[in-house]
Every structure is written in structure tokens, then in C-alpha cells.
TrEMBL record:
One of its GO terms (cellular component) is plasma membrane. Residues 80-287 form the ABC transmembrane type-1 domain. This is Amino acid ABC transporter permease. InterPro entries: ArtM/GltK/GlnP/TcyL/YhdX-like, MetI-like, MetI-like_sf. It is found in: Cell membrane; Membrane. Belongs to the binding-protein-dependent transport system permease family.
């Protein structure tokens, strides 16, 4: 009896009871609630879409053979390339100006703050078309531009028309205007990062430049990227206004020129519209993947079994695939 009581003392843990196979939980199979309104609305939308498609295909006045011919025409393809070049170069200038002015607005120097506010006030307060006209008329206003001491000797002088070609004027006009709008987007992204991040980095001995590059900007990109992608798509269509410079190699001008030459206005408008839709679709896909990259760790409402593997680095994934660690390292210590 003593030995038996010793084996069942307080120092030992009782053996777990055998699991009863009959106590298995059986889940019911709930049926979804019928939603006839959803199916009726979907059917109506499908019928309307089929009617629209039929109206586009069967109407001979669209001249789809002409659309297909000019869609592949050499000058139109070249115009697509010039339009893309205008878009990306203008966005590059805009992003640099936006980051610079956003940092200037947060500076403790009042001169930098006033200059950034004046830049935003002027370029956001005037229409882009008016700005492009002035950029195009720069050679008429100033035949020569110079660098030197104000009201003093000129160190470098050059002719305006040799530097500010229509392409350069179009890129600068679009980029400087875009920088004024992107500046507020960048500023909101920088303000979205908690100040404690900067204080902790400063306590570790990091400088302001390191804090901005390594702490603030990587976290702010989650807020900056989505509206910047929208601005890029908007910039693609804004390039159609560079006729005001004038720059005559973009997609809109080339298709309009062919329309005036062939008297086929509708087919050439469809050519431009189709190309813009194709480029916009590609940019939207790129925007989606960039947003997902900078949004790692902030996903909410996503199935963890689907999103966890995507957010891991290659090294972490290799460790998990080796099965040398447990899926839940705290499983043994969970009561």
C-alpha cells in the first residue's frame, strides 16, 4: 500500500485518459443563404455587357480594319515609346522634388519651409496646360540663359533653344508640376511613421540621414506607394497635353495627325484609347505587386496560411522547409 500510494503522490502527474473515438466532433454542413438578387443583377449586367460588345463589333462605322492597321503602324508604336519615356522621366523628376520638398517642410530652417510652401502654392495653383505653354515659350522670353553672380558677372551662358528642346521642356513641365502634388503624398507618408521610431534610432546613435533612409522611408512606403501609382497612371494620360510645348511625338498628337490626314477620327481615337488601356493595365499590375511588397507585415484580413509563406524571406523559408524546427515552438509549454 505504501508503494502504491507513493506512485500516486503529488510529485507525479496522472496518466492522461484515453481519448474516446466516439467523442469526435462532427461539424454540420450549413447551406448558404440563397441570394436571388445577386444572380439577377449579375444576369442584367451580363446582358448589358453583351449588348455593348455586339454594338461595338457589328457597327461598321468603327472601321475595325483601320483600327488594326494603325494600331501596328510604325509611327504609332514610336509614339507609344515617347509617351512612356515622358511618363517615367516626369515621374522620376516629380519623385525627387516631392521627397526634397517634403523634407524641407519638416525642416527647422524657416527659409527652407517658406521656399517649399511657395513651390507648392504656385505649381498647384496654376493649370498644367498653362505651365506647359510657359515652358514652351521660355526661348521666346529668354533667348540666352546664364549662370553667375546675381547682378554681377556671368560665368556660363548658353542659348535657350539648344538646351530647352520641346522634349526637355515637356519633361520639366510635367515633372515639376507632378512634384508639387507628390510632395503632399510623401509628407503624409512620413507623418504616418510614429515619432518613437526616430527617437529610438537617435538613441542608437544614428544620424538624420540614416534615420530617414533606413527607418522612416521604408515604413512610409506603404502609405506612399498606392497614391504614387495612381499619379503615375494619371501622368500617362497627362502627357497628351504636351502639344502646348509643343512636343509632337506623343501618342495623342500622332493619332490626331493621322485622323486629320485620313478623315478617320473615330478609328484613330480608338487606337489611342486601346494603347492607353493596355499601358494602364500593365501599370496597375506593377502597382499591385509593389504595394504587396511594401505592405508585408501589415496585411489584415488575409488567410495566414496563404500569406505567411509569401512574407517570409528566402532564408526563413529554407529553414522551415528543412523541418528542423517545430511549427509551434511554445507547444510544449502551453497549458
Amino acid at each position: 500500500m505504501g508503494a502504491a500510494s507513493g506512485t500516486t503522490g503529488a510529485g507525479t502527474r496522472p496518466a492522461p485518459a484515453a481519448e474516446d473515438s466516439r467523442s469526435t466532433i462532427v461539424l454540420n454542413n450549413p447551406k448558404p443563404v440563397p441570394r436571388p438578387g445577386t444572380w439577377i443583377s449579375a444576369a442584367i449586367v451580363a446582358v448589358l455587357g453583351a449588348m455593348l460588345l455586339n454594338a461595338l463589333i457589328t457597327n461598321e462605322k468603327f472601321h475595325w480594319d483601320t483600327v488594326w492597321f494603325f494600331f501596328r503602324e510604325v509611327r504609332v508604336i514610336a509614339a507609344v515609346g515617347w509617351t512612356l519615356l515622358l511618363t517615367f522621366m516626369a515621374m522620376g523628376i516629380g519623385i525627387v522634388l516631392a521627397v526634397t520638398t517634403a523634407i524641407m517642410r519638416q525642416s527647422s530652417n524657416p527659409v527652407l519651409r517658406v521656399v517649399s510652401l511657395a513651390y507648392l502654392w504656385f505649381f498647384r495653383g496654376t493649370p498644367i496646360y498653362t505651365q506647359l505653354v510657359f515652358w514652351g515659350a521660355l526661348s521666346a522670353l529668354y533667348q540666352h540663359l546664364s549662370l553667375g553672380v546675381p547682378f554681377g558677372p556671368e560665368l556660363l551662358t548658353f542659348k535657350t533653344t539648344t538646351v530647352f528642346t520641346p522634349f526637355v521642356a515637356a519633361v520639366l513641365g510635367l515633372g515639376i508640376n507632378e512634384g508639387a502634388y507628390l510632395s503632399e503624398i510623401v509628407r503624409s507618408g512620413l507623418n504616418s511613421v510614429d515619432r518613437g521610431q526616430s527617437e529610438a534610432a537617435r538613441a542608437l546613435g544614428m544620424g538624420k540621414g540614416q534615420i530617414l533612409r533606413r527607418i522612416i522611408l521604408p515604413q512610409a512606403m506603404r502609405v506612399i506607394v498606392p497614391p504614387t501609382g495612381n499619379e503615375t497612371i494619371s501622368m500617362l494620360k497627362t502627357t497628351s497635353l504636351v502639344l502646348a510645348v509643343p512636343f509632337t511625338l506623343d501618342l495623342t498628337f500622332v493619332t490626331n495627325a493621322y485622323a486629320s490626314w485620313t478623315y478617320q477620327t473615330i478609328p484613330l481615337l480608338l487606337v489611342a484609347a486601346i494603347w492607353y488601356i493596355i499601358i494602364t493595365s500593365i501599370l496597375m499590375v506593377c502597382q499591385h505587386y509593389i504595394e504587396r511588397y511594401y505592405g508585408r507585415g501589415f496585411e489584415s484580413g488575409r488567410d495566414p496560411r496563404r500569406g505567411a509563406r509569401r512574407s517570409l524571406s528566402a532564408r526563413q523559408q529554407a529553414i522551415l522547409d528543412a523541418h528542423t524546427t517545430k511549427d509551434d515552438p511554445f507547444l510544449e509549454y502551453t497549458p
